[in-house]
User: Fold these one by one.
Assistant:
Number 1:
Amino acid sequence: MNAIRLQPAKLRDTPVGGMVVRFTFGAIVSVAAGLVGLRWGPVAGGVFLAFPAILAATLTLIEEEEHRRDPAAQDARGAVLGATGMIAFAACVWALATWLPAPLVLAVATVAWAVVAGLLYLAFGARRGR
């Protein structure tokens, strides 16, 4: 496992065009999330803001660092499985928020996320022969 480290000197090795693409994509996603929030409320806007903005930047960095697509593809698959679990989390909060105390709602929603994401991971791993 690699340790997380800060290497400011690596900024010189990063092409300016790549940085412009990342920042532009992040700004576009932020504007889109704002528009979603205006139309369907801040909760929907927040959901759209968190996932795509982080994922795109992460995948481009991983692909550049590894010089091949496999690690980026694995991260993308994991993000999709985790995001699907987050849909289960959101559905539980939406369905239970007016019926149960908040700590219990969050506990149930967290379990729902873990179960859905875990089952999808197991199904995906089995399908890939792992």
Note: DSSP finds four helices and no strands in the chain.
Number 2:
Amino acid sequence: MRSETSTSAALHTAGMDSYRTPDTRIIHPSILYFGTPVVLITTRNPDGSTNITPMSSAWALADRVVIGLTGGGQGLANLQRERECVLNLAAEDQQEAVERLAPTTGCDPVPAWKRAVGYRHEADKFAVAGLHTAPSSTVNAPRIAECPLQLEARLLLAVQRPLDAWRDGAGGYVMAELEVLHVHAHDDVVVPGTQHIDPRRYQPLFYLFRHYVGRGHALGKTFKAEV
């Protein structure tokens, strides 16, 4: 005869969540680009021309954007010298232009570690990518006209960090905090009559484990969304 205690335990077990956790394993990926927007950073070179730096290590909070850049690059040198830049957020349909920029550098001569993985020097990156300039309001570097969002920014803080796992000669990386001064947006991604970006029409390009991906289908919005 089943005891009162065992009957109570059986009823309790029957009501428990029976979810089975997926199998997992510990891995050691070569990179951790788990999905961030592609940003084309425009900075002014010492001779007054413009450099474009493709990157995908950025996050934003309030009017600040924090970016991470490999040490030794022309874009980083320009940013630290000029203390300003434009963050141009690429769209899905600009993937080919971004990839044309990917193996190029403004450094001449090309750093050894970059040369070893296939980089080449290009002085006119706008011509390489087939992009066009637009004047900025408060910084000297121009905006990229084709990008749906263009953020003029000034450098507030740059922290250089070594990285033992980095390529030989790359010089670690720099974390830079930027203050956004102006946001330029294409009319067709702004909700009419507001200051808001329309997430239904803004189609950013993302970099996911060295693959380009789009936004995909909308999944809903947070309770803090204003539109």
Note: The mean pLDDT is 90.
